[in-house]
Amino acid sequence: xxxxxxxxxxxxxxxxxxxxxxxxxxxxxxxxxxxxxxxxxxxxxxxxxxxxxxxxxxxxxxxxxxxxxxxxxxxxxxxxxxxxxxxxxxxxxxxxxxxxxxxxxxxxxxxxxxxxxxxxxxxxxxxxxxxxxxxxxxxxxxxxxxxxxxxxxxxxxxxxxxxxxxxxxxxxxxxxxxxxxxxxxxxxxxxxxxxxxxxxxxxxxxxxxxxxxxxxxxxxxxxxxxxxxxxxxx
Length: 234
Ligand SMILES: CC(C)(COP(=O)(O)OP(=O)(O)OC[C@H]1O[C@@H](n2cnc3c(N)ncnc32)[C@H](O)[C@@H]1OP(=O)(O)O)[C@@H](O)C(=O)NCCC(=O)NCCS
What we know:
Strands 1-2-3-4-5-7-6 form a seven-stranded mixed sheet, with helices on both faces. Helix content is 42%, strand content 18%. The protein has one domain (26-208): Aminopeptidase (3-Layer(aba) Sandwich), CATH 3.40.630. It has helices spanning 12-15, 38-46, 50-57, 63-71, 124-138, 153-161, 184-227, and strands spanning 31-32, 79-84, 90-97, 108-115, 143-149, 165-169, 172-178. The protein binds coenzyme A (COA). Residues 1, 52, 55-56, 112-115, 120-126, 146, 148, 152-155, 157-158 line the site of coenzyme A. Coenzyme A binds at residues 1, 52, 55-56, 112-115, 120-126, 146, 148, 152-155, 157-158.
């Protein structure tokens, strides 16, 4: 959690890739978000249940508190990224907060993320975390940390599987993942992944427009059909 909500067809739904042989899609398009996306970010977070809000923010954030958090997102300083489904709804979201000037860990970024309830268990959470690892590493940082409730098995499992050290302090836990230094390969991986996610989004946007156009043509036809339907006077 960083201090500062008809099931999707399949894990491949976000990527548009064919279903993987394994449990999770081999790749999912994770797109960087900007201030233009505040409304979608807000809609995603407001759809979280009270318990999920507690897990995500460390307190049962009210709608107003979530709105303030979204308004306060600084897209120049931090990174916010997400996964869109075919309807262009945000089904997974992550905030990678980079260190502030007064941060006790000047080379550490903090991860906070959420996956829409209907899209969980498909690997999106783990992929968001991997994406954050890559971006933080390419910024030259050496640690990624998560502040999570100790009961948050899914989040702590993601962190542990990535190799993080988890320090439990009662009901709360901190997970610290040491990041390897960036390399040309890690930079290229980020560049290719971001480019492919952008392309995927554009294709979904076009498909969405075509669907809307087909619906509009259907409406016009239905309307014309009604106005020309034979009456007793015809
Ligand atoms: C935490 C969260 C992001 C995980 O998202 P997700 O897409 O369901 O996670 P994944 O599908 O990648 O699963 C990650 C691992 O956790 C396990 N897992 C998922 N849900 C679980 C649950 N309820 N209990 C135990 N393990 C669980 C998965 O089996 C998987 O482990 P595996 O790879 O060994 O099989 C999601 O549950 C969520 O949005 N929770 C509410 C907000 C929150 O807690 N945010 C984290 C605060 S930083």
